[in-house]
Automatic annotation (TrEMBL):
Lineage: Bacteria, Bacillati, Bacillota, Clostridia, Eubacteriales
A UniProt-annotated Pfam family: DUF1858
Protein name: Hybrid cluster protein-associated redox disulfide domain-containing protein
Domain DUF1858 per the UniProt entry, residue ranges: 9-62
InterPro entries linked: CHP03980_redox-disulphide, DUF1858, ScdA-like_N_sf
Organism field: Sporobacter termitidis DSM 10068
Family matches, as SUPFAM superfamilies: SP0561-like (SSF140683)
Amino acid sequence: MEQVTKDTITKDTIIADILDIAPDSAPLFFSIGMHCLGCAMASGETLGEACEVHGVDFEEFMEQLQQYIKQ
């Protein structure tokens, strides 16, 4: 499995992997209704799946996530 970095986050990246490298991004996930970051779903759900389930545009969320990570 490829190491996840802030520059390699895609639609297929597991949410828990994002939180491992960017724990400060948790409030962004909370702000769009992704409150179960510590549950089993976070360790198996991809960012794309989560956006779909929560009715969030993936591209827009990615822009926000990248800006949040760069702060």
